[in-house]
Amino acid sequence: MAKLLFSFGIVTDIQYADIENRKQHLFRAAPQKLAKCVTDWNQHDLAFAVQLGDIVQGNGEKTLGELERVLEILSDFQKPMYHVIGNHCLEISLPVLLEKFGYPAPYYDFAVKGFRFIVLHSMEVSIFSRPKDGAAYRIAEATLEKNPELKFWTGALSVSQIEWLRAKLAFAKSQNERVIILNHLPAHEETTDGESGLLWNAQELRELLAESGCVIAHLNGHHHPGGYAKDRSVHFATLEALLDSPEHGTAYGIVEVYEDRLLLKGMGSLTSRELGF
């Protein structure tokens, strides 16, 4: 049997806000659900944990305080915590968000025991881009005008981020590393729906990941019910939202990394999956 190399925690779409519930969105219950998650993570030997974006909902002038409350809960986790930026996260300005996360840039990478984790910023080109007279915002406006089927609450990787990713994948390949992509927006149509939408340049990203020969999985949030697809050798998994789990339940996971597979152990409403490679 293949050897367990390491494990990590994963959660997405916490989306805390001190506002009334909307259908299945239980905003005020998010902190207690997240606290359960962190308590459980601390009982396992994890290398790190990651939240896949939409850490807050956005609630006007209260949003920053709500972010700080979530980060305080996550600070109880005893190992490194990594953050992905989602569309709702940008209710807080990107510079402030990066300061709170302690990051110099919104996309980055790190390596653990022969696996390289690449964190993407799928909202870099979007109508949330600032300044409004900047290139990213103008490209987003033009893209939406030419492609009215796209959702205005999603976005794209910039040309420079794609080139950065290409270089990171080439380096990983040269080091015989396997790569796991951590993103917020779905990059495969079968892992989302017409309402949630997906990354605007999803097809370009899928081609790059497949051609690299070293990517095994793309893990993301955004589409709260979750989803799964496989494109050539790459697994695309959308994780279910913590926000939408039952009031006294939760939704998070622990990913066990083996020499030949990822074993996602879902807790609460999160689906368990075995992703072989």
Automatic annotation (TrEMBL):
GO terms for molecular function: 2',3'-cyclic-nucleotide 2'-phosphodiesterase activity; ADP-ribose diphosphatase activity; CDP-glycerol diphosphatase activity; manganese ion binding. It comes from the Bacteria. Gene3D superfamilies: 3.60.21.10. Residues 8-225 form the Calcineurin-like phosphoesterase domain. This is Metallophosphoesterase.
